[in-house]
Amino acid sequence: RLILLIQDSFKELESLISKLNGPFIGGKSPNMADAYLATMLFWAHSALECGLMPLPQAPCSLKDMGAPSLRPYLDRWVQRPSWKECYKSDSIYSATSMMQACATVTKMAPDACRQGKDFVKVLARIRGLDSAYRCAAGLDDKCAFHGYAPAPEGPLVPGYPRAVVMASRASYGNSDDLDGSAPRGPLMPDCSYSHRLGLLFYEAGIPFETYLIDTRDKAPWFLEQFPAGTTPAIQGTPGGWVHNDEWVGGFDEIVARAKEQSMGFAAVANDDGQHKTRVVCLLCRSLATGLLASRFAETKVEDGKKLLHGMMGMGGVNVMPGEAGSELRDRM
Question: Global pTM?
Fold first, then answer.
């Protein structure tokens, strides 16, 4: 059922994108719906190409899934300056996001992946595909190494906010089942909500300072200043408080404030494109549910089942109260 959900979601997205009147849903330039779709599609593309998903044809391409228009759409995004600034990469793949997905399943549903051993080839494949990872890890030519951000210093400048983004590494150099022999990789942005917000800011021409926070080792200064410890979080305007320097968290709240404080941001974060953000968002959630939940649908671990139920609810798949693990597995 989850695999059918994946296939149906790709078909519906292909129907939307193949009939666009311009390069983006927003027309000549991206809008809010584009920001939602791009971040989810980027993740899905990496998941397909590295074989993370238990699909009969995986590892495979978006074209193999009957969605040939999605890769050119994603290419148009990756070529934009806003993408390179937000993701700190111009690669069409993300080894970092796949590592985080594999680590989550290994932690929450170890019985569904042989304690992570099933992901060894998956992660080796995506690390080989991700040129940004290979470069920063010293496997290819030398380049900038994106690392830990120190605490912000100095007064805030109106119109130049500070943004905290959750980040992780495609390999930690631990020689465990997930890392294997891979060297320690760079700390890279890995939060879809932060990515969407960053794309909207950059497309609106609003510069901001980025502070990367390791999801496995959150900086003490960040937890002290913002105990919730979640991202995205904004300090300054647009997006944050006007009269104090406290951090504001939550994508929706930051977007609402930024729209009130910046006409340029409001012009980009619109919902006036060929397809509504709500429709695109629902399709993305269904796709995300099918892609990841199908990997551990048969888990017997309680934490894994809780994660599965949460993802099912997000994707619109009915959760049956009191359903036994065996019944759930049979229904899936």
Answer: 0.86
CB 62 within 8 A of CB 10: yes
Give the mean pLDDT of the chain.
89
Write the DSSP string, 194-230: HHHHHHHHHHTT---EEEEEETTB--HHHHHH-TT--
Report yes or no: 293 and 308 within 8 Å, Cβ to Cβ: yes
| Distance from C-alpha of 277 to C-alpha of 25, rounded to nearest angstrom | 9
DSSP 8-class letter at 320: -
Question: Are the beta carbons of 178 and 117 closer than 8 angstroms?
Answer: no
- Give percent of the chain with pLDDT exceeding 70: 93
* pLDDT-based confidence at residue 330 (cuts at 50, 70, 90): low
Conformational region of residue 45, where left means phi above 0, alpha means psi within -120 to 50, and beta covers everything else:
alpha
Residue 9 CB: number of other CB atoms within 10 A? 25
Q: What angle do helix axes 277-293 and 32-50 make, rounded to 10 degrees?
A: 20
